[in-house]
Structure formats: C-alpha cells, structure tokens
Amino acid sequence: MADDDRGKRPDGRRRVEVLALPPGRELPTETEKWIVDGLVLAMPGLHTRQLFTLRRDMLTEADHVIVGVDRERDRVVALLTSRWAEIPSGRPCLHIMIQFVGDAYRNGSVFKESWALHFDRLLAEGHPFPEVIALKTYNPVVHCAMAAFSGHPDITMYPDLAGKDDNGEALAAEVAEALAPGAAFDPARGVVPGIGRPVDLYRERPLSHAPDANRYFAEHTRPGDRVLCLLHVPTQAGAHSILTALGLPAPSARR
User: Fold this and answer.
1) Rounded mean pLDDT of 12-24?
2) Is pLDDT of 132 > 90?
3) Which of 33, 96, 131, 218 is deepest in the core (most CB within 10 A)?
4) Alpha-carbon torsion angle 35, 41, 46, 51, nearest 10
5) DSSP tag of 230
6) Are 7 and 68 in contact (CB under 8 A)?
7) Pairing between strand 16-21 and 9-11?
C-alpha cells in the first residue's frame, strides 16, 4: 500500500487516482513490491517483472515517482518516473526513466494526469522547467506522445522523423553520453543499439497510430535497441505551451 496520498487526482471513469510518491530511494520495500506487482498484471504484453529485476534502478533511483492506482483493486496501473541528469552544457535535463500505462487504462485521462502532477510537483519543489526532456524507447507510441508536445515553434523534437531538422544531433550525442555512458550511439538515427534490458521486454513490437513512426522504428531498431528521444525547450514560451496543454499555470504565475 502506498504511504503517501499527496496530490490525488481522480480519474472517475475507472476510479484511478494519480499520486505523487516520495523519491525512489525513500520508497519502502513493500511499496516497491506493490508497484511492480500491479504493473505486471496491468501490462501482460511486457516482461515487466524481469524488467524491474534487471533495472530496479529505474524506480529506486528516480527523483520523481508518479503512480496511477485503480482504487477498486488497490492496484498500480500506471507509473511515471524521472531523474535529473547532468550534461556537459549545463542545461537542465530531465531523464524520463519509465512511462507505463496499463493496457485497459490507455483511453482515460491517467496519462495526462500523470504528466500534469509530475510537472506540478517538480515546479513546486523549486526546480526549473527542464530545457531538455529525454528518454530511451523501443516504442513508437512513446515518440508520438513526446512529439505531441512539440507544436510550439520554440520546441524541437529529436529525432525528427520528417528529416527536416538535423540540428539536434550534437545535443543528442551529449545527452546520450550522460544517459548511457560508454554505449555506442548513432546520432543520425538516434539509436543506442543493444542497450535494452531485458532484450525481449516487448513480446511484440508496439504500433502507434502514426505510420511514419512505426516505419522508422521498424527500419532502425531491433529488440534490445533503444531510440533516444528529446524535447528541446529553450524558452519560457515553449515551457508555457507544454504546461498549458497539461492544464497547469506557467512558472511565473506560481510566485
């Protein structure tokens, strides 16, 4: 059972509450088990327990932990974790370690509510809005979800699947070294080969509603590969556009 009910946000359609928990290093063992057990049941298409056995750090080393809980079942059905990463340029960089939503909960509001509470807590703690938001994924749905926030002219998305903007390669190489030190990285494609654990995390390749994203991932990745995805948000106007999309006030309005 979670030991922190701060920041409840109900999803009335499925009785899901989105909660902010303490940082991963402070989570009791029983809470960690509660999270993993729930996700194993919520996502039968993934080797979820094996993932958390091999990569327990994706939970325990997180600075921010957000869970979606099906209260009727007292079961975790969604998880968002992140940590701050240091990159040589000194830009504030947020590494999204996990973003999972259970199969039966993906058409509700839990995804948006999770991100809204995540940024609400991050800003309330006095952190700047991250100039760089980064993650590694084998899932084209995740790329599409990030790209949905890149509509503002000040925000750039990497990799740009349309091939119109290759200016992000230097920043991507910098972030790749911070998130996967010593690993090979192809900045032209955004691929970090063979880094995923377990290699067969996905029982089959996920598909999004965007054919170009599905095609890109199919052409450039094999099981175990990960695509480094970045949002570069260098201006307050860009940050404000993301917060507005999540229903949150701009940082300046919090003072």
Assistant:
1) 85
2) yes
3) 96
4) 30
5) E
6) no
7) antiparallel
Q: How far apart are CA 20 and CA 7, in angstroms?
A: 6
* Long-range contacts of residues 167-175, Cβ cutoff 8 Å, at least 24 apart: 168/230, 168/232, 171/89, 171/132, 171/230, 171/232, 172/228, 172/230, 174/87, 174/88, 174/89, 175/85, 175/87, 175/93, 175/132, 175/134, 175/228, 175/230
Q: Which helix (H) or strand (E) holds 34?
A: helix 29-42
Strands (E), the chain: 9-11, 16-21, 64-70, 75-85, 93-101, 132-137, 156-158, 191-192, 226-232
Rounded-to-10 torsion of CA 7, 12, 13, 17: 20
DSSP one-letter code for 49: H
Report the alpha-carbon distance of residue 167 to residue 223 in Å, rounded: 28
- pLDDT for the residue 108: 86
Say whether pLDDT at 77 is over 80: yes
Amino acid at 114: S
Strand pairing class (93-101; 132-137)? parallel
Residue 88 CB neighbour total at 10 angstroms:
9
CA 179 – CA 183 distance, rounded (Å): 9
**Residue 82 exposed, middle or buried by CB count within 10 Å (0-12, 13-18, 19+):** buried
